[in-house]
């Protein structure tokens, strides 16, 4: 009797094992598939992180865009930006009749042609003499730049005019130190190569010799009398337009400059010139007369048909 029971138990045990084995073998492809998917997901994540890390540690590919982000002198962290700190603009402004100048068609053609010819003579001049320039002219060209349109009429610009020789020299020291690193490390081979034909390098004698340096700051936000922050819509575009007008005004006055964007110098120059943290350096324009032996690269400009599309 006991013997028969044992046999039955043995039979039951074997049956269980074979059911489990059958179940396991039928599920094996499913397990393999699940494991493959898991491995795939882990590998993808690891690669993604590696890629992210590589992009971060790569030399900056667009350093001219990211300069603001690297302003370590700006203590305004993101968490500080609370909405109540910001205020909109005054709603009421009187609207007045507008009287426009009107020229005959012949006069318009003549004026536009003459203005083109004047601006077509503008060149970036990197050899400027120390011959003095009347301050009144500088005042007028900056007044002219201040006529620029701006997003919601926020006028988000500050033009810092430097005439003191010791300050100009300090600026030169900062710019040359950073520009040497820019040329040797930050800019990369292609950029340095593209500049070869212009024969530019990190030596900027004009920062000492030019009678004036105009440093143009964009105000990334404004400050109202009650201490609240004011949004400066499209501040970079607005200030860039003002700079274009300034360049035209300088040309009109018979003064020369080189549009310069000293990479990585913004924060140091801002601190040197005691500008607040909401101001970021956009351009540095040395202003003066060309040296007698000044040279410029023989560049040509695109003809009208290459830059204009009429539909
Ligand atoms: C946004 C911008 C940045 C520039 N940055 C520099 C610069 O850092 N150093 C420089 O020597 N020239 C600089 N230039 C001047 C250009 O090299 C110059 O405008 C170009 O070669 C055309 O020559 P032109 O101005 O004589 O027509 C810059 C021009 C622009 C518009």
UniProtKB/TrEMBL annotation:
<keyword id="KW-0285">Flavoprotein</keyword>
<dbReference type="GO" id="GO:0005886">
    <property type="term" value="C:plasma membrane"/>
</dbReference>
<protein>
    <recommendedName>
        <fullName>iodotyrosine deiodinase</fullName>
        <ecNumber>1.21.1.1</ecNumber>
    </recommendedName>
</protein>
<comment type="similarity">
    <text>Belongs to the nitroreductase family.</text>
</comment>
<dbReference type="InterPro" id="IPR050627">
    <property type="entry name" value="Nitroreductase/BluB"/>
</dbReference>
<keyword id="KW-0560">Oxidoreductase</keyword>
<keyword id="KW-0472">Membrane</keyword>
<feature type="compositionally biased region" description="Basic and acidic residues">
    <location>
        <begin position="48"/>
        <end position="57"/>
    </location>
</feature>
<feature type="region of interest" description="Disordered">
    <location>
        <begin position="48"/>
        <end position="78"/>
    </location>
</feature>
<dbReference type="GO" id="GO:0140616">
    <property type="term" value="F:iodotyrosine deiodinase activity"/>
</dbReference>
<dbReference type="InterPro" id="IPR029479">
    <property type="entry name" value="Nitroreductase"/>
</dbReference>
<keyword id="KW-1133">Transmembrane helix</keyword>
<keyword id="KW-0812">Transmembrane</keyword>
<dbReference type="InterPro" id="IPR000415">
    <property type="entry name" value="Nitroreductase-like"/>
</dbReference>
<feature type="transmembrane region" description="Helical">
    <location>
        <begin position="15"/>
        <end position="43"/>
    </location>
</feature>
<feature type="compositionally biased region" description="Basic and acidic residues">
    <location>
        <begin position="64"/>
        <end position="78"/>
    </location>
</feature>
<feature type="domain" description="Nitroreductase">
    <location>
        <begin position="120"/>
        <end position="289"/>
    </location>
</feature>
<dbReference type="GO" id="GO:0006570">
    <property type="term" value="P:tyrosine metabolic process"/>
</dbReference>
<dbReference type="Pfam" id="PF00881">
    <property type="entry name" value="Nitroreductase"/>
</dbReference>
<keyword id="KW-0288">FMN</keyword>
